[in-house]
Design goal:
heterodimer; A: 97 residues; mainly alpha; 2 strands; B: 504 residues; alpha/beta; Amidase signature (AS) enzymes; 2 domains; 11-stranded mixed sheet; 17 helices
């Protein structure tokens, strides 16, 4: 990962980095990804990706019915957690003049 | 002995009781829950300033304890009756702040409790408070915390391990009867090894993740950290089982692990020892020696011990970091300063657009290791790199998992190092280096494959006198074999239960 890619990635992650972090991360991630590239040596032709670790091992997974559950009784509590709110809405600083 | 004398004797010795012995004292009214809580609170008061293991004390603890004491008849059959437990600060607790070791959640008070917490309380435990940890469970040293590092009670110049470092240091120092940690790539087992504790990462799906702040959802599992094997079995039994609120939790029946826990008769049992050379990194001589000691013990008890080759193991660290950071970049996208948590006050200038608002808040709220991992994960998932990194890693994950399944068709148990060495000093292994990630070489495979694994104390290093644990890995849902073999190691090697002498 070079500096240009780092800037692009930080933007995608909505993460502002300091100049010091830019320099540090570029150096560190270069070494780390260089090491990680070794995975390309493994033949994975016809291998399906595994996301759920018990996929194919544990058949006893049970999903609940796809029905909406509300948390209406928690509404006030949830809103109270907001750094800023206006009535029943979340407030963010004005971003356009 | 007079009653008064007996009570004095019990209280002097409180640190040496197993959990089921403590509950029995409470049942017999030889000890009140309030006295037990006060005992630990006094120790926190005395020792925590030098360890930095505990972040928050439950403000209602004494009232809760009194309530149990007053209504003892109603609660007396509960398996964890009156047991004071500390939680890693990643478990949401209604009414007690939950920080995940991060500035971004510094003042966050969850409107609900994690299912683990609900089950602990239902089983009679009392939540004593919350423990320090690596920020969002990212790390293996507990140096990555917004609230400062935790110091290893065995030697304060050393780390306690991580990410559940506060939970480990707290149990080792006797600041609670037991604690809860979480393990995404070794975060229960490695600090357990560094602090002379038993630490269990159960099978993926055994324990509900509801209300547990997510790092990497397909790898995270909660597990107990305790002074002995029996305590871990008892706690795990109380928190396991299907939860409707976590669709990945398993409906598999939860065995009576403690009741069935007996020193394993291992005559003719086939036990594999992981070939350490294949991990692309090397273990310290003390770690190699600890494994030899365990091997000799198991052979002397009649086990059929063989070396097992897992060549794909040398891919486990890259695969783990590519997958876990990818999942983390998605899981941590929710911290945006709008609905809860920290928000930048934009002192210098108001943001020009919403994007600036998010990125400034996240810049100020997250620590540097978290930022590094968010960047890594975002990169792996970004257009052009998805196939090369995330998808490829997920394919190799299947190869690793299938390899372990095959091993367990032949062996009942696999034994491996927990970490490369004993605890390391606070200056060693700075964050962001490849070396700091390679420390996880022997623990991440169990998470990738969803297997249960346990760390049990084996011996102490002759070089620095710090504890060393060994890791037992079993087939999916076979925690019983872990407990039974660990009990044998506990009884024969006698490292389990030891504490630093100044803390006794």
């Amino acid at each position: 990962m070079d500096k240009k890619e780092l800037i692009k990635t930080a933007h995608l992650a909505r993460l502002k980095l300091s100049e010091k972090e830019h320099l540090e991360f570029t150096d560190q991630l270069k070494v780390i990804f260089e090491y990680f590239k070794r995975i390309s040596s493994i033949d994975t032709k016809d291998t399906l990706p595994l996301v759920y670790p018990l996929d194919g091992v544990e058949s006893m997974i049970s999903l609940r019915e796809d029905k909406v559950q509300t948390m209406k009784e928690k509404k006030a509590e949830l809103l109270d957690l907001a750094p800023e709110r206006l009535g029943n809405e979340y407030k963010v600083p004005p971003v356009v003049d | 002995m007079s009653t008064k004398c007996l009570l004095w004797w019990i209280k002097m010795d409180l640190l040496n009781y197993k959990l089921h012995e403590l509950t029995s004292l409470i049942r017999k009214k030889a000890l009140s829950v309030k006295e037990l809580c006060q005992f630990y609170m006094d120790r926190i008061e005395k020792y925590n300033s030098e360890l930095n293991a505990v972040l928050t004390i439950n403000p209602d603890i004494l009232q809760t304890a009194e309530n149990i004491d007053k209504n003892l008849n109603q609660y007396k059959d509960l398996p964890l009756l009156g047991i004071p437990i500390l939680l890693k600060d990643v478990f949401c607790t209604k009414g007690i702040r939950t920080t995940a070791g991060s500035k971004i959640l510094e003042n966050f008070i969850s409107p609900y409790s994690a299912e683990v917490v609900r089950r602990l309380e239902k089983a009679g435990a009392v939540i004593l408070g919350k423990c320090n940890q690596d920020e969002f469970a990212m790390g293996n040293s507990n140096k990555n915390s917004a609230f400062g590092p935790v110091y290893n009670p065995w030697n304060k110049k050393y780390v306690p391990g991580g990410s559940s470092g506060g939970s480990a240091a707290a149990v080792a120092a006797g600041l609670c009867a037991a604690s809860m940690g979480t393990d995404t790539g070794g975060s229960v087992r490695q600090p357990a090894s560094f602090c002379n504790l038993v630490g269990v990462k159960p099978t993926y799906g055994r324990v509900s993740r509801y209300g547990m702040i997510a790092y990497a959802s397909s790898l995270d599992q909660a597990g107990p950290m305790t002074m002995c094997v029996e305590d871990s079995a008892l706690i795990l039994e109380s928190i396991s089982g299907k939860d409707e609120k976590d669709s990945t939790s398993s409906i598999k029946e939860v065995p009576k692990w403690l009741h069935n826990c007996q020193s394993q008769n291992i005559k003719n049992m086939k036990i594999g020892f992981l070939n350490k050379e294949e991990a692309n990194t090397s273990c310290s001589p003390e770690v190699v020696q600890s494994l030899e000691q365990v091997k000799t013990l198991l052979q002397s008890k009649g086990a059929l011990v063989e070396d097992v080759s897992v060549p794909i193991m040398n891919m486990s660290v890259p695969v783990y970091y590519l997958i876990s950071t990818s999942e983390a970049s998605s899981n941590l996208a929710r911290y945006d300063g709008v609905r809860y948590g920290y928000r930048s006050d934009f002192q210098n200038k108001k943001p020009d657009h919403l994007e600036e608002f998010y990125s400034q808040t996240r810049k100020e709220g997250f620590g540097s290791e978290v930022k590094r991992r968010i960047i890594m994960g975002t990169y792996c998932l970004s257009s052009g790199y998805y196939d090369e990194y995330y998808n490829k890693a997920s394919q190799i994950r299947r190869i690793i998992r299938d390899h372990f399944v095959k091993i367990f068709s032949k062996y009942s148990l696999l034994i491996a190092p927990v970490s490369l060495s004993t605890a390391f000093s606070l200056e060693e292994n700075p964050a962001g280096t490849l070396e700091s990630y390679l420390i996880d070489s022997f623990t991440v495979s169990a998470n990738l494959a969803g297997l249960p694994a346990l760390s049990v104390p084996a011996c102490f290093s002759s070089a620095n006198q710090l504890p060393i644990g060994v890791q037992l890995i079993a087939s999916h849902f076979d925690e019983q074999t872990l407990f039974n073999t660990a009990l044998l190691i506990q009884e024969e090697l006698k490292a389990v239960g030891k504490r630093p002498s100044y803390l006794v």
